[in-house]
Each structure stands twice: as structure tokens, then as C-alpha cells.
Specification:
The protein is α+β, with helices and mostly antiparallel strands. It has a domain at 88-258. It contains eight helices and five strands; from the N terminus they run H-H-H-E-E-E-E-H-H-H-H-E-H. The protein has helices spanning 2-23, 29-48, 87-115, 154-169, 172-185, 190-213, 218-227, 248-258; strands at residues 121-125, 128-133, 140-142, 145-149, 238-239. Strands 1-2-4-3-5 form a five-stranded mixed beta sheet. A hairpin with a 2-residue loop joins strand 1 and strand 2. Helix 3 (87-115) packs antiparallel against helix 5 (172-185) and helix 5 (172-185) packs antiparallel against helix 6 (190-213).
Length: 259
């Protein structure tokens, strides 16, 4: 079991290195997103294919020692009492606790998102639900619904809708949810958490590109992003605030250069 865990970590690291060297900023966003979403799954499947990663050990005849070396009478059955607590059992228990905790957190985030709709103003723009809540939120989208604070100005709201509609058009929420579930199942693997962060950056870069290439003023766009720094924003949703994680000013300058 421990060798399998080590192999999963090694494969995860190699897949991430491959992404940084071959795909990041070198290919279309959708291929980057697809690669990152399936990376955790591949990190588990590849080691299970029984491709040898370690040198095979020379076969040895098993040596059996019974008790203190005393003789055993013919037909006598020797039993050894198994320990009540084993290291493997402890590790499995810790794993299950970690998975359960993150699944509960995921459900809690979903519940908090649904709670935002209480006493909120709900409208539609081009088939997309707009929930204007009194709760202090950093604007975000979850599937086909955009959540904003009801005090958001009309100018900022127009920019926010453009950004979040890009997330909706590319179905980023499905990818985020899939990644969060894999994070829960592989919570002990730091490379999976890093892949999730890279996925967020790719999705935000893609949304930024769509907005700026659509003619939005760069200065107004950056100002709107900075206004969204504070407030509630769940991990499973696509938040405009996440654009700050990858240095929005430099990103926007680069995107403008591609127009």
C-alpha cells in the first residue's frame, strides 16, 4: 500500500511537470483545463496499471519461525493473535476522516450558496439567473447563476456579468466541482491541490481574455476586480476575485497584446 501511495505522488509530480513544460501558456485553454481535471484520476490509474516503477527484488524462499523455535507436533495448528490496532488501520481511519471532512465542507458550501437566495432579488439576463443578495459577497457564478451584492453599481454589474457569463459558457463550474471531489478523495496529495489552483488560474485567464477581447476597457475591468476582493466566495464557485490570484494587471496587459 505504501509503495502505491508513493507511486501516486511521483506520477502526480511528473504530470504537473509535463503540464508546466508542455501545455501551460502553449496550447488552447480547454486542453489545459481538461488535462488538469483528469490529472488526479490519472495519478491513481497509472500506478494501478502495474507498470513496474521499482527494480524487481530477487526471489527468496520464505523462512518460517514458530514461537521460539520449538518443535511442533504433527497435525498441530499454530495460530498467532493479530494485533488489535495496526498501522494500516490507523492510516485508513485518518484517510476516511479527511475524506468525510472535505465532503461535509463541500456540502456546506453548496448549502451556503442556496442560502444566499433567501430574501434576494432574482432576475434573468440572456437566460442567466442573477441573484442580488444583501449578503456581502465577492461576485461569483455557480453553474448558470451569478451571485452579486445588491449594492453593486450598474457599471460594475455589467462587467461582472460579462466575466461570469464566460465561466458559464465554458462550463467551468462542472470542472471546479469535479476537481473539488477529487481533492476530497486525494486530500493527502499536495500535487492535487496545486493542480486545482492551476485550474482556477486557467479558468480566470480564459474569462479575462473573453471580456477584454470583447472590447471591455482594461482600466475599468481591473478596478472592478479589485472591488471584489472582500466578501464571501465559495471554493466550488467561479469568483471574479480569483482573477487576482494570477496577477491580473500583468495578465490583462498580455491579453491586450494578443488582440
Amino acid at each position: 500500500m505504501y509503495i502505491l501511495l508513493a507511486e501516486i505522488l511521483i506520477v502526480s509530480a511528473l504530470l504537473l511537470i509535463g503540464y508546466r513544460l508542455l501545455l501551460e501558456r502553449r496550447t488552447d485553454f480547454r486542453w489545459c483545463r481538461l488535462y488538469l481535471v483528469v490529472l488526479p484520476l490519472l495519478s491513481v490509474v497509472i500506478p494501478l496499471l502495474e507498470i513496474p516503477m521499482w527494480p524487481a527484488k530477487a526471489g527468496l524462499m520464505p523462512t518460517v519461525t514458530i514461537g521460539d523455535g520449538g518443535a511442533v507436533a504433527a497435525g498441530e495448528v499454530v495460530t498467532e493473535q493479530a494485533p488489535i490496532i495496526t498501522l494500516a488501520g490507523v492510516v485508513l481511519s485518518l484517510y476516511c476522516i479527511g475524506v468525510a471532512a472535505l465532503i461535509v465542507l463541500l456540502v456546506y458550501q453548496w448549502w451556503r450558496i442556496q442560502k444566499l437566495e433567501r430574501d434576494a432579488e432574482v432576475g434573468y439576463v440572456d437566460g442567466v439567473r442573477i441573484v442580488r443578495t444583501s449578503v456581502a459577497v465577492a461576485s461569483f457564478s455557480f453553474f448558470r447563476t451569478i451571485y452579486v451584492n445588491r449594492n453593486t453599481s450598474a457599471e460594475d454589474l455589467a462587467v461582472i456579468i460579462k466575466h461570469e457569463c464566460s465561466h458559464i459558457a465554458h462550463r467551468h463550474s462542472y470542472e471546479r466541482l469535479a476537481m473539488e471531489i477529487q481533492k476530497a478523495l486525494l486530500w493527502w496529495n499536495p500535487f492535487v491541490w496545486y493542480a486545482a489552483r492551476l485550474l482556477t488560474e486557467v479558468e480566470e485567464f480564459e474569462a479575462d481574455r473573453d471580456v477584454l477581447c470583447g472590447g471591455e476597457d482594461k482600466t475599468i475591468y481591473i478596478q472592478t476586480i479589485f472591488k471584489q476582493m472582500f466578501g464571501y466566495s465559495p471554493e466550488i464557485a467561479n469568483s471574479l476575485r480569483d482573477s487576482l490570484t494570477a496577477n491580473s494587471t500583468n495578465k490583462c496587459n498580455g491579453i491586450i497584446g494578443l488582440r
